[in-house]
Each structure stands twice: as C-alpha cells, then as structure tokens.
C-alpha cells in the first residue's frame, strides 16, 4: 500500500530531474555556441639550422583562444631568447585581459612590453624576433603582427592574406610608385627581404593590428607560419594539403613533412599553427 502511495511522487521527482538535466544540457550547448572549441594543429622542424629559433604557444581563456608564433632572427645572435620572451609575454598579458573589447590595446601593450623585455635581456647584444598573434573570440579573428611571419585564412581552397610583411620590399614598392626608382631596381634590390621592424629593435615601430576583427566562416582555417614554411612550399602545395578533409593536427604535420621532404641544403626553421573553429 505504501509503495503505491509514493509512486506518483517518484514520477514527479523523475520528471523534475529530467527537466533539470535538459536545462543543463541546453545551457552547456549555449555556452559551446558562444565559445566554440577551437581545433589547434601545430608542426615544427629545425631544418638545417644549428638551433631552433622559432617559438610558439596557444592558450584558451574566457576571452577566446590565442595562438602566438615568433621567429627569432637567425642572422642575429640570441634569436631563441628573443622569440621565447616575445611569446611568453603575449601569453602572459592575454591571461590578464579583463574584457574582449580591450583586445586592440592588448596587442599594442604586449608588443611594447615584449620589445622592452627583449632589449633588457640582450643587454646591448644583437637579437630580435618577428611575431604574429591571432585571437579567435565569438567567431571573429583579432590579430597583431610584426616582421615577416605570416597570418592568413584558408577559405574555400584559397588564401586570404591578413597581415603585411615589415620588410624593405614595401619601402621599395612605395619608392617605385613615387617614381623614385624603376620597377627593375625594386625587384632586383639585394636587401628587399631585409626586416625593417621587429621585436628587440631599438627603433621598434608599433605592431600592425587589424583595424576591424575579421569574421570567420564555417570551414575557415586560420594559419600562422614562419618564413621557413612559405619560402619552401608553394601556395599550391599548401592548398593541396589544407583542402583535405583531415584534422588541423594532421594537416600541420603533413605540411612540415612536405617541408622536410624538399631536403633544402639551407632549410630554415619552419613552424605552422592551424586554428579551426569547431562547428
């Protein structure tokens, strides 16, 4: 008799438990939609260099996922020191970020701090690094870059360039457009690939920052690469790998395998990071 009397109560409790569970599932789904998981792939090779001067890191907070890649300048001493300090500074400052609306200030502040810390650590010695940093928040790409490492978005089989390279070639292009030099002089200039801005430089200029966040679409891959990748592989070779239906991790590893397969005698350090929004 007692069992029969409590059955209705048990049914009610069961229904309430199911409702609570459904609300929790829905809340988790909403959080996932607002802050989707970002798939991250990375690959790296030392190439034919004596030391690995590339350094990278990624982390995720409530304000998004950040990926940072720095390429220590091989022609200068202390490239590894500079790239490591730069990346660590950006990751540390991102962890301190109190609101996404401050992302633009974050990039400029982190770059200034990194430049200062590198100069202090060098103590008058020569050294420096390029850097590219990407933050994905609410489906938007925020970014900052200095030097000649590349940030690009792979969409529908094609690359969408995001940053510009801080190299002397850009100055030569401006001089050509101004009529100061000929096209042949601009193309054949021996110092056209020389960096004109980087971290660890006494004359450091402001880091380039995206004026507006870049809206990402389904299937987009955000790519960060050092010059050891793009100087070795063509866009067609990169596209062939990235267009496959494989994980970001597998794509990054295949790209590094392709770099190593070239067996270049002077192969530079090569690093790639791939960020893809989970849908």
TrEMBL record:
It comes from the Bacteria. Gene3D superfamilies: PPM-type phosphatase domain. PROSITE patterns: PPM_2. Residues 39-277 form the PPM-type phosphatase domain. InterPro entries: PPM-type-like_dom_sf, PPM-type_phosphatase-like_dom. It holds the Pfam family PP2C_2. This is PPM-type phosphatase domain-containing protein.
